[in-house]
Design brief:
Order of helices and strands: HEHHEHEHEEEHHEHEHEEHHHHHH
Number of domains: 2
Number of helices: 15
CATH topology of the largest domain: D-Maltodextrin-Binding Protein, domain 2
Low-confidence stretches: 1-20, 22-27
Strand content: 5-15%
CATH superfamily of the largest domain: Periplasmic binding protein-like II
CATH class of the largest domain: Alpha Beta
Structural class: alpha/beta
CATH architecture of the largest domain: 3-Layer(aba) Sandwich
Largest sheet: 5 strands, mixed
Helix content: 40-55%
């Protein structure tokens, strides 16, 4: 009868072989660097590159354990970022420049939206076919819009503050009055208007000279100084996520977005991705040469000069304090 004796060495070797995959997976998970990123609203396609990078494992491949924290109407992204409760936050060009004005710490490290998503939306058949035609007409403008794009619109197209009406976080006021125009994002409000039975005239401000970056990644100066490798890996993986999401198969990212925001329909998601592609939101000559997320001194100076000229920011600031190009223009994801 064969012996049933198994030596300790044999047992340890056999069980070690069985446990190795699980053990190594846990060890790899423990070796990942935690990173948190705060967005301003619920998960949306206009943040899709982040979710795509998370869903497809691009962040894990970069050695990162990324948490994307959703926002909401009562959440103050600046306060959360300034309190050090997150490593990175989502913003645009204006906020880092305003940080310079206020003496607050915050540095833009990448700009995944080469165009602003801001639009002005009007009713068809009313003559509101240009931004200049909105002069003297009522416009729904949010408090943030009044300090960012509105001074630019006012100076460039002759609009005035007495046109502003209280901003409604729904389409009802806009739909009820054909003379009213309203702000929005190209990825959202035009779709909602169409679903309500009206095809709006959409003015993408970026196509009229508004040079604000969107989907800007904001980091603390301490993060940039002390953990540049983490910043670089996060920027590069996010750039690859954006390329995959907008120009590849967005299914993995969409699954995560819908999990965090189940009210989103597949139709609205598809619209948002399509319009980001057709409006070339991620594209520019700078991105063509340097890759998705590109930033340049010239572009930042142009935007600052525009904002200072219309009184949205004070003159005399050094815009170079608002950003660093240390982590971009390296062709991590080129279209």
């Amino acid at each position: 009868m064969p012996s049933l004796h198994i030596s300790r060495r044999t047992f340890v070797g056999a069980t070690g072989a069985l446990l190795a995959p699980a053990f190594l997976a846990e060890a790899r998970a423990q070796s990942l660097t935690p990173v948190s990123y705060q967005i301003g609203w619920l998960p949306q396609p206009d943040k899709g590159g982040l979710y795509q990078a998370l869903a497809t494992g691009l962040y894990r491949e970069a050695g990162l354990d990324v948490e994307i924290r959703p926002g909401g109407p009562q959440l103050n992204v600046v306060q959360i970022f300034m309190a050090g409760r997150v490593d990175f936050a989502d913003t645009d060009s204006f906020r880092p420049l305003n940080f310079v004005k206020e003496g607050l710490p915050g540095i833009a490290v990448a700009a995944f939206g080469q165009k602003s998503l801001n639009v002005m939306m009007s009713h068809p058949g009313t003559g509101h076919d240009t931004l200049a035609a909105l002069k003297g007409k009522p416009v729904l403008v949010s408090p943030i819009g009044r300090t960012t794009y509105w001074p630019w619109l006012r100076a460039k197209f002759g609009l005035s503050d007495d046109q502003i009406r209280p901003y409604a976080f729904n389409l009802a006021t806009f739909l009820a009055d054909s003379q009213i125009s309203r702000e929005g994002f190209i990825t959202s409000e035009p779709f909602d208007a169409r679903k309500a039975g009206m095809t709006p005239v959409v003015h993408l401000l970026a196509d009229h000279g508004y040079s604000n970056y969107s989907n800007v990644m904001l980091a603390s100066p301490k993060m940039v100084a002390d953990r540049p490798g983490v910043v670089q890996r996060f920027v590069d993986a996010t750039a690859r996520g954006w390329k995959s999401y907008v120009y590849g198969d967005p299914t993995p990212g969409n699954a995560l977005i819908k999990k965090g925001n189940p009210d989103l329909t597949d139709e609205k998601i598809a619209y948002a991705i399509g319009v980001m592609r057709s409006a070339r939101i991620l594209e520019s000559p700078d991105a063509a040469s340097g890759g998705i997320g590109a930033m340049t001194d010239a572009r930042w100076k142009t935007f600052y000069d525009e904002m200072a000229a219309v009184g949205a920011l004070p003159s005399g600031l050094d815009p170079r304090k608002a950003y660093t190009t240390q982590f971009v223009n390296k062709r991590a994801a080129v279209l």
